[in-house]
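no rush on this but wanted to send it before i forget. theres a chain ive been looking at and ive put its sequence and its fold in token form underneath. please have a look and point out which stretches look like helix strand or loop to you. thanks a lot i owe you, the record is right below:
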Amino acid sequence: MTETFDEPSLGRRLVALLIDWVIASFSAVALFGWTGVRFPPDGIRDQLIINGVFVVEVAILVGLTGFSIGKRIMGLRLINPDGRPIGVLRALLRTVLLSLVIPAIVMTDDKRGLHDLAAGSKVVKA
């Protein structure tokens, strides 16, 4: 028997992304503040450091547990076709593509972005 999952709204997904971005920003300041990283970012260097922290944080959490902090707060999870977490390597691919923005904007009818198609993942309600 195949389990069916509800599709979350785009708004819920965007709020989860915003939460994860803010957490990554504060984490970057905590980890790299001695190098002058600020929140809000002051220049491309700060933005790249924050993006790097975002990619690592989200990839590890989503890959191992199926959700990031933002997804957990918003009642979302990320699954593979079997309904399990996608693993760290596929989550890393997905998160790098997500951080490029364009793959996330181009979506299929079932609200899967190119980053989800490339990683073989889907965001569902928890």
Summary: The helical segments are 10-32, 44-65, 69-73, 88-99, 102-105, 114-119. The mean pLDDT is 91. The first helix runs from residue 10 to 32. DSSP finds six helices and two strands in the chain.
